[in-house]
Fold this protein.
Amino acid sequence: MPNVPVPLNYYLTLSAILFMIGAAGFIIRRNIITVFMSIELMLNAVNLTFVTFSYQFRQVDGHIYSFFVMVVAAAEAAVGLAIILTVFKNRSTLTIDDVSSMKN
Amino acid sequence: MPANFMPSAAEYFRFAPEIILTIVGTLVMILEAMTGDRDKSSLGYVSLLGLAAAMAAAVAANNDPGLAFQSMIIVDGFATFFRVLVLGVGMLTILVSTNYLSEAKANSGDFYALILFSVVGQSLMACANELIMIFIGIEISSIASYILAGYLRDDRRNNESALKYFLMGSFATAFLLYGVAWIYGLTGSTNLGEIRTVLSHGTAPTAMVGISAALMLVGLAFKVSAAPFQVWAPDVYQGSSAPISAFMSAGPKAAAFAVMVRVFYTSFDSISNQWEPVFWIMSLATMVIGNFAALQQRNIKRMLAYSSIAHAGYVMVAVTSHSAVGTAAVMFYLASYCLMNIGAFAVVTWMARDGEKFVEVDDFSGLAQKQPFVTAILTVLILSLVGVPLTGGFFGKFLVFKAAIDSHLMWLAILGLLNSAVAAYYYLRVLVVMYFREPGASTVNLPPVAGTLRVAMLVTTLGTIALGIFPGLILGFATQSSTLGK
């Protein structure tokens, strides 16, 4: 097996693509859970970026930042899923367009 | 690399407000579990004491300004100003909430603990000197306020508001964080001062730095509800309970502006020719969208939401001016804005009553005949929101437009002034309804003004007047601290 390292730019491009898929999913998808998953995908793209740069600088900082991001994402997921649950209990729907009762 | 990583006592002292709030917040949650079915208003007073202690610690920390925890935290006049401001917002919110929660039969320690935790995040944002600390501060503040937005979990409007706030807020944070990651990659650091040093050498690719700064700006613009990222604000403020709308429109916004000013004035100082035009357009768009949309609102919470967007636009004008005068204007404007907005929402809280049935502008018909005290309070606050002289709102606008003119932003100042003339129309309509209409069904069974709510109304109103007559009270301190320790 030849041991050729993958160029770092590949990782950065991948993270940019993941981030854009996440952002597009947030805008296009109509199911609340899928929208929420899109946000998680964006955060994972950020983690990949942090780890890539951290590896490039031979620093440990970026690795630690990605742990911070994971912790925050977990806290956000706990709160977010609870909110989605109450919405479902009161409205029996998970379609985002059905959750818009406030207008002028 | 220092051999000893243990922080010194002075460093803990600089971080004392956050430590106190976290301890008191946890304590309140334990007390909530221990007090069982008894009345929880006392937990509100415990939280008020905690906030007061944190405020004292924040003021005391300013006697020994400096960095803490490997320069992750900075305590300077600017940080102290915003710390005291968000702590004050927390106190006023608790005063506005207690009676509302008792009526909704939802008075519990969790609520106060969440307010305290949210304020911890905002306080951390005010004194963060590092992009990751800023991110953590924003998230602590936001996650607590997502829960608060949907606090009455059987209320459909609360649910919807929480869901929108949560989805939009997390989406925005992801943008901010991606910008942070790229700045880290381009400069090798997340410390604001070090980023400033690296960027001033001009070795980092300018286009990439610009894109990263733009990504961070998207995140921050969401938090301050600046156009074109303001769409969530009206729905969220309308759907949440009125005391929470007061909180969300004041505390997180002030803290996010503090972050915006600190990041763009220190780290991105050397690329200001890139971001200044963007801020110019955003501030104008924010003012125009906020004011013109507010004209058409019949629901007073929604109207105040659009008006808070417009006020964010005025603050953006001051940020655009990119000067020490502009920084002082941002500080003064946000202080007076927090007072008058919380006061106005306090009146809405009183008027709305259990289940928030009375939240239309027309529900205030003939209030002058029925409840002169509240009418007088709301009159002063509305006049301040318009920007009439002798109120804090006037001096805020005066300083903002003075800063813009000093920085040769003539057109922005002129368009901003025209905007505040438009704003007068929808604000004064509330006064017309209160004084010149006959009382309707909504004013038949007016509740008495509860003690805590009365305190909140008086403090905000007197504070607004005090800032209008003696602006030097805080302007001197704001001007001193506007250099941001560069």
Notes: The domain at 30-97 of chain A is CATH 1.10.287.3510 (Helix Hairpins).
